[in-house]
Every structure is written in C-alpha cells, then in structure tokens.
Amino acid sequence: MRTQVAIVGGGPAGLLLSHLLHRQGVASVVLESRDRAYVERRQRAGMLEQGTTDVLRESGAGERLDREGLVHHGIELRFGGEGHRIPITDLTGRTVTVYAQTEIVKDLAALRLADGGDVRYEAEVLAVDPSTGTVTFRQDGAAHELTADYIAGCDGFHGVSRRAVPDVRTFARDYPFAWLGVLADVAPSTDELIYAHHERGFALHSLRSPSVSRLYLQVAPDEDLAAWSDARIWDELAVRFGTPDGWELTPGPITDRSVTPMRSFVAEPMRHDRLFLAGDSAHIVPPTGAKGLNLAVSDVTILARALTERYASGSEALLDAYSATCLSRVWRAEHFSYWMTTLLHADPESDAFARRLQRAHLEYVAGSAPAMASLAENYAGLPLK
Ligand code: FAD
Ligand code: DHB
C-alpha cells in the first residue's frame, strides 16, 4: 500500500493534518491504534486560542465550533479569597474559545470520512522507518506495510514515532503534583474561567456548555482516585475557590473523573529524514496554560503548509525549516506553561520564603498592567509566523 503522507495517530493532530492536506490535494492515510468511540470520548483540553479556531474555521471545520463554542474575553485569577480579572480581549484584541477536544476530534473524524478520507481505527503502528518512509502496522490480527513519501508522527507522548529519531535530545521536568479533573452535569458557577491559588493547592473552574462544568484540583502525583468521593471533591473545590464575597460553587453529579500527571517535555529535533513529529509526540506542557492542544494545532498547520509547498513547487525549504519553526513556538509555550504552573500551584517542596515570593508574584501579575498584558498575550496565543 502507498500514499503521499502516512499519519501515525488519529488524535487532534493527526486528523487535522489529514484534513488540511486533503484541502490542498495531498493524499494521506491515518493509522489510529484505538477505536473511534474511545478517541472521541477521551476527556482532555477545552480552551482554544484564536489562532486555533481560525485554522479550524478557515479549513471548513468550524461549523459546529461557531454554533456551540463559547467565546471568552477574560479569565479570573483568584488568591487570598479575592478575584482579579485579566481582560484578555481588551489587552490583546484576541479572544479565546471554550470547545472541548472531544468535539474537535468528532468534527474532524466526521469530515474526513465524509470527504472519503482513509482513517483506520484499531490499526496499531509497530514501527516507522524514517529513511524509506515505511510504516508497519497491525490490523485485524495481521501485519501490514504502508509506504509514503513522508511520515507524520502524531502518536502522542507514548507513541512509537519519537523513538525512530536517532540522536533525539530530550528536555524534561516533572512536577510534584497532578490534576484531578472532573466533568459535572451542573451549570457552571462562573461565566469566565477561574484559576485559583490556595495554600491547599490549585483549582480551576472551566466549563463545557451552559449545563456542563469542567473542574480541576491539584492533587498528589500518585493520588488514588478511589479516595475522592463526589462530596469530598466538591468540598475541596469549595474551600479552594472560597471568597468572603458571597460567591458560591454549585455542586452536581460527576460524570467523568481522571488524574493527569504534570510534566514538561521537549524532543529535539522534530524531524528526521522523512519523519516529522507533531503535537504530544514531540512535546508536553503542564495544562495550566491551556497550551497542549493549541501547540498540536500549530505544529500540523506549519507541517501542512510545508508539505503543500513541497508538492506544489518541489521546494523543500519549508520542510527543512519545520523543526526550527515549531521549536521556537514550542519553547515559548513551554516557558509560559511552566510560569503559570509555578505561579498558581502550591509546591509541597517549597519553604516559607518561596511561598512569600509566590504571593508577591501573584500580586504583581494581578496589579500591574504590563504584567497582565504579558500573561494575556501568551494565554491568547502568539500569532503563527
Ligand atoms: P493525542 O491526543 O495523544 O493523540 C495521539 C493519538 O495517537 C492517540 O489517539 C493514540 O491512541 C494514537 N497512538 C498512539 N500510539 C499509536 C500507535 N503506535 N499507532 C497508532 N496510533 C497510536 N491540554 C490542555 O490544553 N488542557 C488540558 O486540560 C489537557 N488535559 C489533558 C489530559 C490528559 C489525560 C492528557 C494525556 C493530555 C491533556 N492535555 C491537555 C493535552 C492535550 O490534550 C494534548 O496536547 C493533545 O491531545 C495533543 O494532541 P495529539 O494529537 O498530539 O496527541
Ligand atoms: C481547560 C483546561 C486547561 O488546562 C485550561 O488551562 C483551561 C481550560 C479545560 O479543560 O476546559
């Protein structure tokens, strides 16, 4: 079997790349190890930069996003029992949109299949060969080979593609905490996201729709989910969001829960020969800055442009620049995500001096126009070059 671009992984990065290439007349095959329902149910990110919604809309994948996405103009930082609004749109001229990763994946998979795209589920890639463009995969109990001009490794952090880059250099940081994320059938208690710092730990109030809330709690990296009853989760959230001003958190039935470890990770370079890494296969950020999904979208947007130019004109200039172009954006997002994480979490290893510095930092960010503008610029996302 042959195609122009073999795409390993059918998460947001792989499906969007396949869709963008199709719009430019470039053929691809997507190989995804899980079944479709699993990929479409996996609860993950929810906050999209304007650059991400622009890419989806301009490529014809924004119809439901435009109907159901919730456009936001600010976020709240809450600490010491007080809220401080960061007016993102006033400071940057840009908006952010709440629209879940599950919905993006559903929209893209439906579009690919409607457009006659070749997306194979339960097709596990066993190995990729960057020098020949050959991908070996297992489907229906048998081994198969797909040969392509190029391979896109969109197979996430635990995939096989990154391991095929010889002399890959990795940079990593693990954090002494994790996030317990819950989805609840209850109207959000807030119109805008609340990022709360509390001495007991960080908490985030996000949302999915006018009737579904998404909330996160900082917990220990080895936290046992079984120790968290619904009542304990809501009690802890209420403490961390607590203010004396009468604001209340409304609890409701929890429909999904999971614990996500927090790490920073970058693999360099993001290309070897015919193989290009994109999204979580090349880099991970802690979720505090809401950057993981947005970076996956910018990587594949840059890769789709480079492949389109290659097939249109024969020029490999953009493909040759791919790794460096992505990595400069990746490292900016790595820094912002690290910065937001250390600003807002309670570090169990910190001492009293470090905690006072953290509080001074929070007060500076909430009280200084240039500091707020810097947070807003990074949160809304820097434009693609
Ligand atoms: P993935 O979404 O990981 O997709 C990779 C795909 O490749 C998967 O479908 C996988 O099944 C498939 N695959 C893997 N190996 C193979 C193989 N050998 N063969 C074939 N297919 C393979 N970001 C935020 O901004 N906010 C959040 O709240 C947030 N929460 C997260 C929670 C969790 C548990 C995780 C893991 C990530 C979270 N992220 C969050 C990050 C964000 O979801 C990711 O950055 C985003 O999913 C990256 O998309 P991707 O397509 O690169 O990778
Ligand atoms: C969501 C997740 C994040 O990590 C974040 O910073 C903002 C929103 C969410 O899932 O809605």
UniProtKB/TrEMBL annotation:
Keyword Oxidoreductase (UniProt) = yes
Q: Which Gene3D superfamilies match?
A: D-Amino Acid Oxidase, subunit A, domain 2, FAD/NAD(P)-binding domain
Specify the FAD-binding domain's residue ranges. Answer: 2-336
Q: Does the keyword Phosphoprotein apply?
A: no
Query: One Pfam family name from the record?
Result: FAD_binding_3
Q: Cite the entry's keywords alphabetically.
A: FAD, Flavoprotein, Monooxygenase, Oxidoreductase
The protein's name is 4-hydroxybenzoate 3-monooxygenase
Alphabetized InterPro entries for the sequence: FAD-bd, FAD/NAD-bd_sf, RIFMO-like
Q: Which GO terms describe its molecular function?
A: FAD binding; oxidoreductase activity, acting on paired donors, with incorporation or reduction of molecular oxygen, NAD(P)H as one donor, and incorporation of one atom of oxygen
Q: Which domain of life is it from?
A: Bacteria
